[in-house]
Amino acid sequence: FGKQYVENGKVLRKELGKIIFSNEENKLKLEALLHPLIKLEIIKEAKICEEQNKPYFIDIPLFFEKMHYPISRSIVVYTPRDLQVERLQKRDNISKEEALLKISNQMDIEKKKELSTYIIDNSQNLKHLQEEVERLIGEILWNYKKRLIKANMQFLTILLRNSKKLLLSLFISGAMQVASAKGLPQEFYNI
Predict the structure, then answer these.
(1) Three-state DSSP state, 119
(2) d(CA 117, CA 140)
């Protein structure tokens, strides 16, 4: 997009945003450049966490819009649209029209809310947001622990089933050896 959008090695997001959000072709060009790099980084980090058997969170731009990731559970940080516009105007020091243009390039927040597994309510103050995040982390960790317990119980059940078969097999084998040693005919102890 040119050096005019970079200063001191950093992207001038506000300036780049002006040409991205107002031009679909530029937006698609930027997405084609960034999304493969983002996906590779996500896969790398996820692999590390999975090898360590740790739950983890991934922040994916345009997750619902693109659906490029095989992720079964998702979180939406929910802010009603009018508050979203207000906050965006204040954060980026932009007009209402510019804020609406940026938001229009994303899926409607109400639709994202319907599609998500978990919702963090961000319609109030920072204290409330912190409580929401802590609540959700607790819920996710609890569900994770329950899944681990269930997986361990299934493993234990399989182990017990196999142990019963092994014990039965050892019992039969031992009984066959005893029967053979006592001189019983082979058809008596062949199963």
Answers:
(1) strand
(2) 11
The structure tokens listed for 7 are 């200063």
How are the residues of the chain apportioned to helix, strand and coil, as percentages rounded to the nearest 5?
70, 5, 25
Rounded mean pLDDT of the chain? 79
Other Cβ atoms closer than 10 A to 105: 14
Of 125, 122, 124, 101, the closest CA to residue 113 belongs to: 122
Residues in the chain predicted with pLDDT less than 70, given as ranges, are 61, 151-191
CB contact set of 115 (below 8 Å; sequence gap of 6+): 64, 74, 76
Q: Cα separations (Å) of 121 from 137, 138, 155?
A: 13, 15, 38
**Residue 59 near residue 75, CB atoms below 8 Å:** no
Which pTM was predicted? Answer: 0.60
